[in-house]
Amino acid sequence: MFSVYDNLSPIVTTRQNFDDLLIPEDHPSRARSDCYYINSSTLLRAHMTAHQSELLRAGLDNFLMIGDVYRRDEIDSTHFPVFHQVDAVRLQRKEHLFENHPDLDIFEPTFDPTNPNAFKNSISDPSKQSCHTLEATKLMEAQLKNHLIGMVRVLFGEDIKYRWVDAYFPFTHPSWELEIYFDNNWMEVLGCGIMRNEILANAGPNNSIAYAFGLGLERLAMALYKIPDIRLMWSTDPGFLSQFQNKDVNAFIEYKPVSIYPHCTNDLSFWLPPTLTIDTFMSNDFYDLVREIGGDVIEQVKLKDKFVHPKTKKHSLCYSIVYRHLERTLTQAEVNKIHEEISSAAVNAFNVTIR
Ligand code: DAH
């Protein structure tokens, strides 16, 4: 079980974003040309990993950090200055990791955390950190990779083709990237690795080994739903949003381009008959009726307001109906005519009184 933190402020210090994560002073990711600095020691976080150390210091051991991250970059169909990431940390202690092998250890017997040079040359061996045993590293690696492959299979199907690529991140060692074969291309999905023990030791827990991973959400969603342009993620167009709203999380959704013609929204408010309340009125019956009369110029119907009159105790509902033609611009007069028909049909079908 991971606890979830999705409400952390995006304004962080250079210590959080870089120093705590052992990112060297001269690392290119610190450049003013790449980050949104507020002043020399404060910036909009460039990755969710920026919160790793503060949450470890708070005593957490399994957690997800979810939020908006900011990077200066080109603007094209896959880049936008703000996007979203999920980052994760999972800590394990010896008793847990080696439950069935109490003879095995997380740390090499030569590792002395009290030695000021304990972390010198700690990543010169490509297979593990100098403090960790190979057994602990390999077991964590296997768990990490299994969990992430499981996630990718849930998202993209059992048969998804994937590969692990050796990577470098200043905050993990060893490190990997996961790529999936999607749309005739290898696509990078996430970065991950065994957390540098120096980060853990600085933040508190000194008896554990941890894995971490981080992934970009827009990129995954764009692949999953076939959304061609990252700017659509910021669309408030009902034609876009309604394709995802109120859908089962596991529903198969394939994005259909929104008509380039403008939409037109009309509201419909009515009093319910005394036999019905705002809770017993079946919105779905109303939606069917709207669709039956309006056909496919109906892009969306949403419940806008519920109201109970304080004196008469009469119940009233208000729906917004979004009209849009796929091939031409609708005139207001045309829309009004359909809207009229819907409103008289509602009166007949549900015995409501138009307000
Ligand atoms: N922070 C990295 C990025 O934004 C992604 C990442 C890689 C996060 C490895 C991690 C990790 O937690 O272990 O590109």
UniProtKB/TrEMBL annotation:
InterPro entries: aa-tRNA-synth_II (IPR006195), aa-tRNA-synth_II/BPL/LPL (IPR045864), Fdx_antiC-bd (IPR005121), Fdx_antiC-bd_sf (IPR036690), Phe-tRNA-synth_IIc_mito (IPR004530), Phenylalanyl-tRNA_Synthase (IPR002319)
Any one GO molecular-function label of the UniProt entry: tRNA binding
CDD domains (alphabetical): PheRS_alpha_core
Record EC number: 6.1.1.20
Domain Aminoacyl-transfer RNA synthetases class-II family profile: 9-238
GO cellular component terms attached to this protein's record: mitochondrial matrix
SUPFAM superfamilies per UniProt: Anticodon-binding domain of PheRS, Class II aaRS and biotin synthetases
Catalytic activity: tRNA(Phe) + L-phenylalanine + ATP = L-phenylalanyl-tRNA(Phe) + AMP + diphosphate + H(+)
Pfam families in the cross-refs: FDX-ACB (PF03147), tRNA-synt_2d (PF01409)
Keyword rRNA processing: no
Keywords, ordered alphabetically: Aminoacyl-tRNA synthetase, ATP-binding, Ligase, Mitochondrion, Nucleotide-binding, Protein biosynthesis, Transit peptide
Principal subcellular localization: mitochondrion
Any GO BP: phenylalanyl-tRNA aminoacylation
Protein's cellular compartments: Mitochondrion matrix
The keyword ATP-binding is annotated on this UniProt entry: yes
Domain FDX-ACB, chain residue ranges per copy: 259-355
NCBIfam families: pheS_mito
Similarity remark: Belongs to the class-II aminoacyl-tRNA synthetase family.
The protein's name: phenylalanine--tRNA ligase
Organism (species): Pararge aegeria aegeria
Gene designation: jg11341
